[in-house]
């Protein structure tokens, strides 16, 4: 079974899916959509909900929704442990995935603001109040664990680190790239994920080693 992951030539919602496949040792086709082609693809109704990421199967069937795709690919190789079979552990993973979705949901509306003063005020609120609220509570949930949902790496960590990488990239005007530096558990989690050999290989060469 050869899967295709359709997303832009960017990280954000697509990269956790790519990394889950890479860590699981599942080779896939990485379909990167140029931004300038997106309007035409939407007009052609190629994708189920006219949005990406989308997972495509060998028979051409396509599935949308990043959370559903991430859970699916995280389940493909149980030995990788990315989406636990234990229902209580899975609950903790789903909890953290929901929190990460909430964080994204606070940031994304500011990207649609055309009024610069309104955007600046919203980004200031994110920086001083909203994001610290979430980061403090995520670290509290982590407790003494290295990972966001327990003792082992899961898809929740990949999703959370994806947001941390996004915030740390400096592409969001008004949100300091070093905002996460005040949260040592999140910084350590980011390093743990980046240091995984399969992750490093993917980021450097976009290669997957089959397990």
Automatic annotation (TrEMBL):
GO molecular function: glutathione transferase activity
Residue ranges constituting the GST C-terminal domain according to the UniProt record: 86-211
Any one biological process term the GO annotation gives: glutathione metabolic process
Xref: InterPro entries: Glutathione-S-Trfase_C-like (IPR010987), Glutathione-S-Trfase_C_sf (IPR036282), Glutathione_S-Trfase (IPR040079), Glutathione_S-Trfase_N (IPR004045), GST_C (IPR004046), GST_superfamily (IPR050213), Thioredoxin-like_sf (IPR036249)
The keyword rRNA-binding is annotated on this UniProt entry: no
Key words of the record: Transferase
UniProt cross-references to Pfam families, sorted A to Z: GST_C_3, GST_N
Name of protein: Glutathione S-transferase, putative
Organism: Perkinsus marinus (strain ATCC 50983 / TXsc)
């Amino acid at each position: 079974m050869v899967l295709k992951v359709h997303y832009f030539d960017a990280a954000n919602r697509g990269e956790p899916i790519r990394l889950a496949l890479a860590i699981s040792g599942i080779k896939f086709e990485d379909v990167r959509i140029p931004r300038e082609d997106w309007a035409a693809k939407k007009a052609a109704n190629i994708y189920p909900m006219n949005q990406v990421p989308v997972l495509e199967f060998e028979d051409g069937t396509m599935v949308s929704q990043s959370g559903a795709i991430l859970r699916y690919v995280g389940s493909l190789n149980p030995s990788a442990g990315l989406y636990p079979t234990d229902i209580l552990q899975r609950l903790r993973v789903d909890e953290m995935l929901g929190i990460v979705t909430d964080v994204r949901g606070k940031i994304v509306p500011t990207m649609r603001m055309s009024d610069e003063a309104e955007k600046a005020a919203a980004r200031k609120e994110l920086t001083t109040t909203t994001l610290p609220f979430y980061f403090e509570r995520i670290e509290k949930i982590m407790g003494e664990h290295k990972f966001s949902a327990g003792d082992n790496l899961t898809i929740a960590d990949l999703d959370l680190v994806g947001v941390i990488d996004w915030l740390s990239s400096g592409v969001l005007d008004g949100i300091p790239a070093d905002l996460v530096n005040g949260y040592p558990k999140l910084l350590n989690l980011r390093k743990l994920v980046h240091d995984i050999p399969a992750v490093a290989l993917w980021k450097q060469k976009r290669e997957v080693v089959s397990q």
